[in-house]
Design a protein that fits this description.
24 helices; about 15% strand; 27 strands; 7-stranded mixed beta sheet; 6-stranded mixed beta sheet; globular; alpha/beta; about 725 residues; single chain
Length: about 725
Amino acid sequence: MSESRSPAPPARPAGPAAPSGVSSAPSAPSVATHCPYCALQCGTRLGREDGTVVVRPSDFPVNRGGLCQKGWTAPALLDTPVRLHNPLIRDPRGALEPVGWHQALDTVADRLRRIRDAHGPDAVAVFGGGGLTNEKAYMLGKFARVALGTSRIDYNGRFCMSSAAAAGNAAFGIDRGLPFPVGDLDDAEVILLAGANPAETMPPLMRHLTGARLIVIDPRRTRTAETAALHLQPQPGTDLALALGLLHLAVAEGRMDEGYLHRRTVGFDAAWQRAVAWWPERVERVTGVPVAAQREAVRMLGEARRAYVLTGRGAEQHSKGTDTVAAFINLALALGLPGRAGSGYGCLTGQGNGQGGRELGQKADQLPGYRSIADPGARADVAAVWGVAPQELPGPGPSAYELLDSLGRPGGPRALLVFGSNPVVSAPRAARITERLAALDLLVVADFMPSETALLADVVLPVTQWAEEEGTMTNLEGRVLRRRRLSGPPPGVRSDLDVLRGLAIRLGQPPERFPAAPHQVFEELRRTTRGGRADYSGISYERLDAGEALHWPCPATPPGQPPHPGTPRLFLDRFAHPDGRARFRAVDHRDAAELPDDRFPLYATTGRALAHYQSGAQTREVPELLAAEPESYLEVHPDTAERAGLADGELARISSARGTAVARVRLVPTLRADTVFLPFHFTADGRANLITSTALDPESHMPEFKVCAVRIEPWTATA
């Protein structure tokens, strides 16, 4: 890989027309589709007025005529000046230069083949994204395992809700973000939000929470916390101790649903043996949450006839995230909430297709249908559809951060293909990951924007975006949705599916094995998921286009029988374990992997801002959103800032054992004095992930984004 990597501005001359699989359908005057951002997948209608694409919200159940600022401005991405229009290859001088598609794909395939022949199939890796359509996610997993033969595939959803997935699978036998429709929250009396800030991360969801009294657990007084009846503000990294304490109080104060425990659960005694040691005063000492507030939270939940416990990234992104989510599930089970109409437990999935992205094959240990790649039966079923022998499929590979950290190292991948992700900004210890990417022999990035990762690549492949493609997405309720195309892509732009097909054929695969038309891919996806936990076999474009609301599992039915209606509400009769019962999990609190000390005396935590999304590669190119939040900032308590010699509006240097970031100071009197906060959407020295910890949850392999030890000081140009 060239040492000199100077980015060139994206070239805009017209290139070859996109293949027929991408652009054969005519442009539509208007289409019903969905927002390109978060997992709500708000319903929208796209159209053109005076030559400009405009978006209007539809009366879709999750948003009911509302959109956030990001949704309203999404059409700005369709003609952004920095849009990629031609394949780019890095020339000997280190500059990215436009080339034709044949040259780009030939170059990639030839270099992949050489690397694979010299070093084995695991010398080539694939990194995907939670924003890819179901069809793309499915085909990317198939491409990695069949065309490349590599086990080295994972995706940025590992950074999103993998801890909740692990805890949900263990407790219920199925992981689906919300095992009930969003609209069920309308009738809730009390909702506990653990580490979730939907007022900023998915604002339309707040329309469903206005009738409930909210209990918000968050170290910050977020916009969501400001609406709460009760805000519990624990020290970062102590959510697990707090959840254990709430379970202790629920039992000690007689608020358990003992009939539910007897009929529908197993394992309570072992879980209680851990929670019994977390009496309220001990929890207060560890978390900082007053005993009175703990008791009030349990009273509110225990007295409500309709209550929900919902977790988010704040509970998950820890080195003990799986146990933390399990502890909140234990609380919900003790109160008899999951699987009961009008109550329940759920996880607020973050990325637009974070749900479909993992259950259809991008995750290192999973095959389509949410099947384990280590299960011989699952391997045989999938291999039969793919037309290969089961033994030809590789086994499980390393998780996302482990994969990225191994790039270019002895025994690690020497080539990486990136689809729909920007790890230069989004991965923990971002400076190290940037170094690993630069150490590769070949980096290929498929994107529609010149992201920070794309600008490091040897080959950049310009691909379609949301309003230029057909496909499906799966939102946080497990509802499968149709993404519809308003118009074709610009000349020179191809779909990810066409890219994968072109590369697969060049790598010796039969053309029929890698279709590029989304409808064909979905038909194959249906067959491949049949019988899996996430069964899509009864879902079709025709049913979705007819307006049916279809939640997986939705199995195919025998000929002559009515089609399956889908499963909007899981667990009403039984949980997905063989005995039909939910499992308590015996967990105990442990410290974060890194605690403050004399050198780094403060906790730092990270999260999202209202105006931006994920790594910010898209939203930072929307003028209205960039104007609302133009640079990285550091929230800090006034007393803490004074001790550090910082004033409001000044630049601060935030340092951890891994690196240093720079951000603009914002004084926030409601923040804990021992805690600072940075959003993770910004680039260069403003990357929050320059300082974040690489400690991983041992089960989910989720990085500990939410807590690390830092010091803060004034920034100087010479420092």
